[in-house]
């Protein structure tokens, strides 16, 4: 348990105050707002107060809903990716139940996380959305598309894999190993978990971690240990689940990853692209789980072009 707590502390954002449900939120124009200063808001739905941030063009077509990775809260999204998408689109990212500043008991299955995301999306009044899922978020996105296909226009699945994919059920072991490596070297575990150990990967990791600190206040609450454990349970179950029939996902899908993903092995991305009828695949060289962050200058324009087709 000590290992999990240490990884939790290193991977999540610091605590801060989030406005209570119903509290007024300062209005900031789209021209003035970036990911590092956009206000955190609260939406109550299904008995949960969901903490979320909303950015970009309110009339920029289909909204893009971002679904995050293991142990992530709102402050774990790369500002370059969020600001890049917000230049063209209306985007929303939220903490699932029991995660970060959202209330409720944390879900311990991907299916329940998908149900909660559907509840949030409908409570926002969105008739249809594009889904951007990174890692665990990509698994949630697949479930949403299978559960309620009419709700989804397009999907971007990054650093993720299908149900029953190789290596997914052992994410906890990989994470704890890299926690030990980080502890002995005095580094953030994401330097090992998200990036390769080549000179290019190391420098990309440092730049990414610096970007995550651009927002100074108010920051999201750190994920609680119980929520982190619940997410590990969900990933283990997803990795042992029988494969789904992904041919049922008829929407266009962009799949992306790094060539050397240790958390969700890259062969899962190839499998996803092969099993999805209308998919495109990007695999970045000399990159790991966080390949889209390492190559954000290439990835964001390509993702925007995909959504614009």
UniProtKB/TrEMBL annotation:
Protein's UniProt keywords contain DNA-binding: no
Alphabetical UniProt keywords: Hydrolase
Entry-linked SUPFAM superfamilies: alpha/beta-Hydrolases
Presence of keyword Magnesium: no
InterPro entries, per the entry: AB_hydrolase, AB_hydrolase_1, AB_hydrolase_fold
Record-annotated AB hydrolase-1 domain positions: 63-293
Gene Ontology MF term list: hydrolase activity
PANTHER family given in the database record: AB HYDROLASE-1 DOMAIN-CONTAINING PROTEIN, HYDROLASE, ALPHA/BETA FOLD FAMILY PROTEIN
Stated name of the protein: Alpha/beta hydrolase
